[in-house]
Amino acid sequence: FIIDLNQQLKQEHQLFSKQQKNSIINLYRGQFIHKDELNRLKTTIGELISMNSFLSTTKNKIKALEFIKNRSSPNEQLISILLEINVNIKSQTSPLADIKHLSVSSQEEEEILFMFGAIFRIDDVSFDEELKIWKTKLTLCSEG
Questions:
Q1: Are strands 119-128 and 133-140 parallel, antiparallel or unpaired?
Q2: This protein's superkingdom (predicted)?
Q3: Boundaries of every domain in the chain
Q4: Is the pLDDT of residue 110 over 90?
Q5: 4/38: higher pLDDT
Q6: Quick one: three-class SS letters along 66-103?
Q7: Can you give the pLDDT at residue 40?
Q8: What is the CA radius of gyration of the chain?
Q9: Residue 144 has what pLDDT?
């Protein structure tokens, strides 16, 4: 099943890549993370991180912000964070694909899915005073 899903994502990635006018795109994900995880991120700027699950993101920054702004933290140990991911879709990377046509969520989400195991460089971790949230800037790394 995972092999089939990976193959499907590769096919969707090829279509997605051909449809893009720009080779660089920015994607977003709003989520809650444990305070300890935030502290680890802050001490590993410039290092690599691998996702151990599929990663759902959006091209729509407002939707990602709504996800964390419209929900309260389940407990005081979890904080909201916005992941801002820079992607060069023309480079050889872990498969990612525009799945809005396959998604059960709203088309407004403009959902982009990364295959598990995607590797990112941590570029920055900072608190946005205006938005009152933590932001982490990541760059998708090339394979090999």
A1: antiparallel
A2: Eukaryota
A3: 2-140
A4: no
A5: 38
A6: HHHHCCCCCCCCEEEEEEEEEEECCCCECCEEECCCCC
A7: 96
A8: 15
A9: 47
Supply 125's token pair.
Answer: 């971790």
Q: How many C-beta atoms surround the C-beta of residue 19 within 10 A?
A: 9
pLDDT value of position 13: 59
Question: Facing residues of 9 across strands?
Answer: none
Q: Sort 92 into a burial class: Cβ within 10 Å, 0-12 / 13-18 / 19+.
A: exposed
Cβ count near 40 (within 10 Å): 14
Residues 17 and 89: their CA atoms lie apart, in Å, by 6
Cα dist from 96 to 15, 51, 80, 126, whole Å: 11, 13, 24, 26
HSE (side-chain half, CA atoms, 13 Å) at 116: 6
Fold of 2-140: Toxin ADP-ribosyltransferase; Chain A, domain 1 (3.90.176)
Please check the confidence at residue 37 and state whether its pLDDT lies above 60. Answer: yes
